[in-house]
Structure formats: C-alpha cells, structure tokens
Amino acid sequence: MIHSILEARKPKAIEMDDPSYRHAAVLVPLFKSDGQYQVLFTKRSNQVEEHKGQISFPGGGVEEEDRTLEETALRESFEEVGLQKEDVSILGQLDDTLTVASRFVIHPFVGLIPFPYPFALSAAEVKRIIQIPLDFFSEPSHHLFRREGYTGPSFDYEGDVIWGATALIMEHLLELLKGKISLPPVKV
Fold first, then answer.
1. Exposure pattern of 16-48 as b/e (b: 16+ CB <10 Å)?
2. pLDDT tens by residue, 28-80
C-alpha cells in the first residue's frame, strides 16, 4: 500500500546551483513488528563531522562512485547500520529537503526492511538505533523546535528529540499516508 502511494506521485526536486550545498541521500527504513509499521532511526555519534548526537535516518553524502541517489542511500545504510542492499525493498522517494546549517539537499527514499535484523553499527558514525512506531508520528502533539537557526516540527519519543530535516521528512511521509493507510491510535 505505501509503495503504491509513493509510486503514484512525482517527488519534488530541489534544484540547487549553489555550490555550497552538497547532495545527500537517506533511507527511511520501515519494518513490521507485532503487526504494525515501525521506523528505524539512528542516533549519530559525537565523532561525525555533521549533526553530532542528532537523531537521523541512515544516509550521507553522494560520492563519486554512486551512480544514483538511491545507491547513495543504500551504500550509506550499509556503512552505518549494516543493512545489505538486497534486503531493502525501495517503496518510493519523498520530496527533497534542505538542511539549514549544514547546507545539504537531502533526497529521501522509503524502504521496507526485514525484522528482526542483524544490524552492525559503525561505532564511528552511529551511537545506537531507535525503533519508533509509525503511528506515533500521527499523534497531534507536534511541537515547534528552535535551535541553530531552525524553527520547525519536532517529535519527542522517550527523550529522543527528532527535529530538523529528519522531522520534516517524517512530517511529509505522514502527510502522504494520511487517510490512505490505517494507523492505529497511539496508546497513552
């Protein structure tokens, strides 16, 4: 169902001629556990160059050997959390998103992954992984977050604050799915 929703639309691309912006691709990994969709996030280590300690999706900058943006997302997902590309079923692409401070154009891809999975975290890049039920994001308790020149949506899940481009990507995914797939109400 998510695949057909994403496939039926053309993602909005951000054309950026400004050479100070870099292109990056991320994977929005979804999996089913106990009959409901979950989203996999990473908490970045404090050793990475950009976005230290933030909650993000597996992904990173486009490199010369990457033939496509999807390939970038899959390569980075393998490097960061050990996801084998043959284990990821790409469901579609979301609209491009800009980062404010680090000046990236992010190209997000939604993928279905098996679960449980033998993740292998890159200690240099990822402190830990975080699983959050997809229906958590449909709760109307969004908050505006202000930090480092950013004002936008945020989600606080058990003390992990998702903000910035990651929150914008989640907000966009939920907007596309709203009313089209059944997400059980969040239990409080």
1. eeeeeebbbbbbbbbbeeeeebbbbbbebbeeb
2. 999 999 889 999 999 998 776 775 678 999 999 999 999 999 999 999 999 99
Q: What is the pTM of this model?
A: 0.91
Q: Do 30 and 111 contact (CB within 8 A), yes or no?
A: yes
Distance between CA atoms of 60 and 34, rounded to whole angstroms? Answer: 30
> Domain extents for the chain?
2-10+20-135
**Coil, strand or helix: which one is 78?**
helix
Q: How many Cα neighbours within 13 Å face the side chain of 13?
A: 6
- What top-level class would CATH report for the domain 2-10+20-135? alpha beta
Please list, in sequence order, all residues whose beta carbon lies within 8 angstroms of the beta carbon of residue 127, skipping any fewer than 6 positions away.
Answer: 42, 43, 44, 45, 46, 53
Q: Tell me how far the alpha carbon of residue 73 is from its chain's centroid.
A: 10
Chain segment 161-171, per-residue pLDDT in tens:
998 899 999 99
Q: The dihedral of CA 106, 109, 110, 111: what is its sign? A: negative
